[in-house]
Write a structure and sequence with these properties.
This protein is mainly alpha-helical. The longest helix has 34 residues. Helix 5 packs across helix 7, helix 7 crosses helix 8 and helix 8 runs antiparallel to helix 11. It is built from 11 helices and 2 strands; from the N terminus they run H-H-H-H-H-H-E-E-H-H-H-H-H. It is 65% helix and 2% strand. The chain folds into 2 domains: 51 residues, Orthogonal Bundle (Arc Repressor Mutant, subunit A); 146 residues, Tetracycline Repressor, domain 2 (Orthogonal Bundle).
Length: 238
């Protein structure tokens, strides 16, 4: 299968601007929006700015996306459609581990993915579809109501932040990160130099594996506690 032409595709006989105007599609719009998010903030992504990059009038985008929220939801749909969900067989703990690794791979492939999970208090539908299987799994393990909400809040905010932080950890582990070490006290300077001499030897995958196990352990604790409470309730009612 021939590779799909990107938003910058052109040939020698067709002006770029005219091709974009005549062949504008949702795929082209989303691809260019992703490129904008790679180099700018979420606030910098506007329909007017995107139209300028595409060489079209802003009204051309409204044919495909009614507003900026619809565009961001479209970007999220594109990104999270490439999420590779783990197999459902086996222990539920393995599903959690594999889901975390799949999320890590997606964030690594698309660094903009965490950016479009939510904006201005709104959560995209594509992320919810990716995230809901964890909630369903926890319900199957005996959590209910507030217990599920608590577990999902702790798990998702903690794990997503952890995965994102590790994406940039390689650069901050390098000695060059100590640009202002001279401002520390002598004892603190020595400690910093000792730590950073070892930081650069750390394998990010080892850190991720260790961290993911802590999230699995935390969910196991919540499940175990819920089952214990349920058992006590049944005993008391008999």
């Amino acid at each position: 299968m021939a590779p799909r032409q990107g938003p910058h595709a052109n040939d020698a006989n067709t002006p770029l601007r005219r091709r974009k105007r005549n062949h504008l599609s949702r795929e082209i719009i989303v691809a260019e929006a992703v490129e904008m998010l790679k180099v700018g903030t979420l606030d910098a992504l506007t329909l007017r700015g995107l139209a300028k990059r595409l060489g079209v009038g802003a009204m051309s985008l409204y044919t495909h996306y009614a507003n900026r929220d619809a565009l961001l939801n479209g970007v999220a749909d594109h990104v999270f459609a490439l999420f590779e969900p783990p197999a459902s067989e086996g222990p539920w703990q393995d599903y959690i581990r594999n889901w975390l690794w799949a999320t890590h791979r997606l964030f690594k492939r698309f660094p903009v993915a965490p950016t479009v999970i939510s904006w201005e208090g709104r959560v995209c539908t594509a992320w919810l579809k990716t995230w809901f299987p964890i909630a369903t799994l926890l319900r199957d393990q005996g959590l209910d109501g507030l217990e599920v909400a608590f577990a999902m809040d702790w798990f998702s905010t903690g794990a997503m932040s952890f995965i994102q932080s590790q994406a940039g950890a390689v650069s901050t582990r390098q000695p060059g990160a100590l640009a202002f070490v001279g401002e520390l006290e002598p004892a603190e300077q020595r400690l910093a130099l000792d730590l950073w001499s070892d930081f650069r030897k750390i394998d990010t995958l080892d850190v991720l594996q260790f961290g993911f196990e802590q999230y699995v352990n935390g969910l196991e604790t919540l499940v175990r506690n819920a089952r214990g409470r349920n058992q006590l309730a049944k005993t008391a009612s008999n």
